[in-house]
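Batch job 17 of 40 flagged for manual review because the log was empty.
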Amino acid sequence: PALTGWATQFATAGGAGSGAVLVSRMLRSAPDRISTTIEDIAAPAGARRVTVTTGATARTLVTFTAGTWLYGLLETRTTEPPRDLDALAAQLWERQPDRPDPAGAQAAPVNDALKTALAEAHARVRGVFRTPIPGSTQAATYAGSSWALTRFPGAALEPVLFRTVGTTWFELGDTGGQGCPRIPAAVREVWGLTRTCPLSPSPVIDPTATDAAGGDSPFHGIGTWVWEVDGSGGVTAIVEKATANGISTVYVKSGDGTRYWRQFDRSLAPLKAAGLRVCAWQYVYGRRPIREARVGARAIRAGADCFVVDAEGEFEGGRGSYEGRTYRAARRYMRELRRRSPRDVSVGLTSFAYVDLHSSFPYSAFLDGSDGADLLMPQVYWGAFRSRVQTAMRRTARWNSIYDVPIAPIAGTYQREPRSELAEFRCLSGALGWPGVSYWSFQHTNAGQWPVLGRPLTNCSIPAQARTYPTLRIRSRGDAVVRIQARLRAWGVPIPRTGFFLRRTRSGVRAFQRSRGLEADGVVGPLTWAALLEEPPISG
């Protein structure tokens, strides 16, 4: 059999780890692949073996990292017996000089004993013994403790984080939301997560913390929505209420369709002078998207700290495909808005919270590409839904997570929502790692509700929530299917964005699943969603 060895240096240790993932992914993406096996190797630390069979040929790749260096051994054989690549990798490792990680964390070996210990720790919390998915476990040592990150089959979760206390492993839960703040920065670097888990902390993790409402973006913290400035008592009343109740951002209506509302211009300076961040929002209809976008851009150029597109029922009922009328209108609006606006002003999209209930709404078109909105602001009006807060928030989280952008939910106060429910809404938002919340609307908020909107919370008992995803399969339809088809295209699977999950889409899903070493069942569940939402490797 032919044997090739190589080594490549990266700028960081994390880059070397990401390179190992990329090389393995490229091997597994062979179009004529019949079978794939992925196995962790006890030594060197973090080494992994991938074997891919294509016809009469088998290729086995062993990779491991040493500091900023990535090493690989690739064997190609037909009928010959395989070499002991594990032993060769161990010998190669032993001959390398010491390469201590400058951040202080070191990769640790992944073996059966570790996987069993993690499964036992997981079972103590979940009550079910599951073995980690092969190839999904990473381990490291840092500051006198061991850390591990892994996935378990059948669990609608992001990777689960573990840490040792003494010699015993304990499950910490998910990574803590945006930024993966539960993983020490040095460990994130060793695991190659610095791109997907930025070094800056998540804006909202513990809602009881004094800085939970912090962050540089006007979308972070607590906001209130103003429909009519005069109907809200005027600018002075807005300033007094907002500053007295912990409100940091005021969303003022600046347009309705093709009509610009000058109330935004009149209120902008005095609200900013009071220390408030002022964002504009526009209700859009989609009938004249270019003219509507110019109205929105006018508010941004006037000095808005951020801008929100409010698109609702007028964008429903279309054919549902990416080339349908409402999808085209949404893309044209966003393209013109971005063309006429400075790029340093963030844009949000607010619409229906339940993506599955409003399946023909073109969420993905408003969020598409470089012209798309930067975050989602779902309208979680549980009072109007006749639903419990927790039920509404979890359904919102599950379906909005597929768009892979930050989420800053809006609660309603117009149904006389009790203070206890408004507090629960804030606690759940923090537990989900969402960067901010706001309330519709200033005019509807009563005297009993105001004190709980922005004051520090001291009694949140809701643990951090793991990210969940919906399950879609053959005969599903709607924008969630458009999203699947768009992500398949991003990964090189040629498929039209029709919004219908039919045989061609199922075949594309199966091909993608095989390329990632997942069960090729054609069903888009949590693990497939997580893989689809990753960034594909850059070719060329």
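Reviewer: the log was empty due to a logging misconfiguration, but the result itself is present. DSSP finds 16 helices and 20 strands in the chain. Unflagging and moving on to job 18.
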